[in-house]
Structures are given as structure tokens and as C-alpha cells.
Amino acid sequence: MIRFVLSLFVLLFIGFQAHAVEPDEMLKDPALEARARVISSELRCLVCQNQSIDDSHAPLARDLRLLVRDRLTAGASDDDIRRFLVERYGDFILLKPRFSFDTLVLWISPFAILILGAAFVWRATRQRRVPANAEAPLTPEEQAKLDALLAKRDQNA
């Protein structure tokens, strides 16, 4: 039973490591293929949106992988390829977007949410310091009504 669970566990993790790159896509030069893998692992599949083109089986991802490899064999640098794809598809194609004025909200919002959450917790704990059963003194009108009610109760008893 333990062997079955372990082998199932191993098979699941092997499945997560599989890439969508087909053998006919691979370059013969190992150095160029390694560069292509690095670049394609940084590019978002525009169909799947949560996978890199290296991991996606979508036809568009295959086309983009082939485009990257064609440009590499043509002598383009890694930055030239990224720049070309960003010009063509926008910053969305990058899995890790660049820090720019356009992506400022994207980069700052996690910190802003963290600061707002901390301020909310601080304010909530500060308000909680006042005991829930603390009594405010009665106003003179309230004290007069209470005295009248108590006097009436004492007369009826």
C-alpha cells in the first residue's frame, strides 16, 4: 500500500515537470535550445494565461515557441526577442511584468493592501481596549428618572 501511494505521488510530480515542447521544435544546438527554454519559460501563453509557453499545449504557444527559436537561429539576442514580443502582444505576454509607470498599480497594490490590513487590525485592537462592560455616568435627566422609578418601586413594595 505504501509503495502504491509513493509511486502515485512520484507520478503526479513527474507530470508537473513535463514541458509541452515537442521534439520537432527543439534546436540541434544545446546552447540555443537552453536559451530558447529560458525565454519561453518567461513568456505567458495568451490562451492559457497562467502557463508559460514552455508548459502550454495550445497551438498559439507552439507558434510562439517556434518564433522564439527562429529568431534565435537568426542571431537575435534574448532581449531583442522579448522586446519584439512585447511590442507585438504588450506587457501581458511577460509572466513577470517589468516595473514601469503602466504597471505601478500592479507592483504597489500588494504593499498597499498589506498596509491597509495592518492599519485595520491596529485600529480594531485599539478600540477593543475599552472594556465592553464599562459604564458611562448617567446624565442628570437619566439619574432623575432612575430615582423616580426606584422611589415608586419602594412605595409599592
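Above is the first protein from milestone M3; the second protein from the same milestone is given next.
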Amino acid sequence: MAGTNRLHDIAELINLRSLLTEDELAIQQTVRKFLDERFRPFIARWYEAGEFPRELVSELAALGMFGMQFKDYNCAGLNATACGLACLELEAADSGLRSFVSVQGSLVMTAIDSFGSEEQKRTWMPRLQSGESIGCFGLTEPDFGSDAGSMRTHAVRDGSDWLLSGSKMWITNGSIADIAVVWARTDEGIRGFLVPTDSPGFQATTLHGKLSMRASITSELAFDRVRLPADAILPLATGLRAPLTCLSEARFGIVYGAMGAARDCLEVTLDYALNRVQFDRPVASFQLTQQKLADMAIEFNKGLLLAIHLGRMKESGTITPEAISVGKLNNTREAIEIARTCRTILGAAGITLDFSVLRHANNLESVLTYEGTAEVHSLVIGQTLTGLAAFR
């Protein structure tokens, strides 16, 4: 194809490779090669059927994708930038795949590693790292998304046990999970619990009819007086700070992941524009098309530069939740605009699953919303700038 030798130039307009180490680039290439062989040839079929490829879980584990930021429990122990680049490649394949990995490794494993007991860590971290067990993270409720502090799910003491009641909504992996990290209101404030999904009174219902994240399992969880032992509670998780810490870890992956979706859209579209002939010349030769490509490539490079900078901040211990909000807001917003603009270059062909751009655009509608909506991240940044909270 005429454009094949130009596809990788998109990320090289400002020589971003020079900011990465050879090890980081090698990890990125390893993940991309795996996805090229084991995921990309089949994703259109899985997306159309609304299926998640569970058969790849063990292979993702063998690749080191679960809990890749941790050094113990046989985890890969990657630095923040390498973890981000892996997320970029996962989402370049499909947002649903990156979401699965993020829930497993950034939400569930962070909750256990940061707030769990030694026994909880010994029991669950190796199982989650190996893919032997799948986890989900229950924070959002049917009536409370951004306002997580108003959750209705509650747990009350019954002797030495706890009784958990309530529901959670939009839970990735919920119907296939073996263990759920569930946040609930108690007399002691908001606490986190490890809930085996085979517990009596626990029910997970897969949500159908989605137009976004179709190759990802999304569920509603219901708890009807689920009895939990005293050691089910995450002992160090008190208040909303605990789940928000986990969300910050996952949001960092989104900063990179969104740029992966954008890059895939750009690569596909540039190749198409170089090969699609109209009026006896490639579509890529028209001024309006080149303006679109130039604008999108600039925004992609800016977004990736921001992601790399945040990665270095995370590695140095200087990153803040507000900085992650900047990255999440900017990169998801730019990625979805890139996907939509790429679709216009592909014309009618862009609405089919023969090309990835509208699949990415649909997925990014969810990514723009979950783990902090664009509006909420705007208010976080606004509060940082003004010192005034606009949430209430």
C-alpha cells in the first residue's frame, strides 16, 4: 500500500521517541506485536457480537499485563511510562481491552495492594496477576455516578460479620469476576470490602444493548444481605480517599490509552487517504484533507507528549490528581475528536467495521465519561485554579 511506509511517522513529528528508553520502546513493541497477532484480526467480529475474548486472559497474564506496575507477586514491575505505553497499545486495539486490564490491574489490584491486609494480598494478588481470578470494582451506582459520596450501598455489622446490601452499575467485568471490590457506606464511613462473587445474595447481570464498549462486559451488581466475614473488609480503606486513589491509578492509564485509540484512527485514515483515489488523485492530496490530517497529528503529538510528561512525574513521585485530570480531560477530548474527523475522511466506508475509527469513536464516548466525566475533571481543574469548589 502506498501509505504503509508513512504510518509510523505520525508519532515522530516532534521526535517523541527520543524521550523514551530502549526498554520502554521494546515493551511497547512487544505488546503491539501480540495484539497484531492475537487480537486485531478478530476484534471486529467480537465487537459486532458483543463478546469479550475470555480465552485471551491467560495470554495477557503471561505477557505481564495485570498489575504491571507492581514489583511483587510475579508482576512485571514496569515504570510508569512503560505501563502507559502498554495501555496505549491495548487501547489502540480496543478500549474494551484496555478497560479490562485497567480494572484488573489498576483498580482491583491497587485496592488490595494499597489498602488490604497481608493475608488479602497473599491470597488475591498472585491469582489476579496470573489471570486465575478476575476482579471487578464496584463504586458507581444506578443513582450516583460522579457523586460517589452519596452512595446507598451499605454494610452493617451482624456479630463479627457484615451484611452488605445495595447495588452497583456500569461495572466492567462484573459478570465474569471471581472477586469484587465493593465500596459501601457503614457506621464508620465509606469502607471497601472484598466480596467473592459466589456469595449467597450476590447477583451480577450483564447489560446488553450497548452501542459503545461492545467487546467489554458491563454489569449491574446487586447485594441482598450478602454475609461477609470480618476479614472481608479492606482494613486501610477509610473514606472516599481510598477508591479515588484507585481511580487515579486507572485514569493515568487512560491518558495514554486514549492516545492509542487516536493513533490507530490516524494510521488507518492516513493509509486510506493515500490509497483512495477520487478525481484522479489520492484523497490525501487535497488541501482540506491535509489540513485535517495535520491538525489531528499535531493534537495527537501534544497529547502523547503530555502523557509522557505525566509518566515522568509519576516516576518521580510529583504527580497530583489534578495533573491526571488535565491528562484525562485533554486526551479523551482530543481522541474522540480525532476519531470523528477521521471518519469524515473515510466517508461512507468509515461507518463499517472494516475500519476501526467509528468503533474507537463509539468506545471513546464511554472513556470520556467513566472514571470522571469531562465536566467533573473540568471542575477539578477549575477548583485548582480558583480555590473555589463548584461541585455543590
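Note on the second protein: Confidence is low (pLDDT under 50) at residues 1-7.
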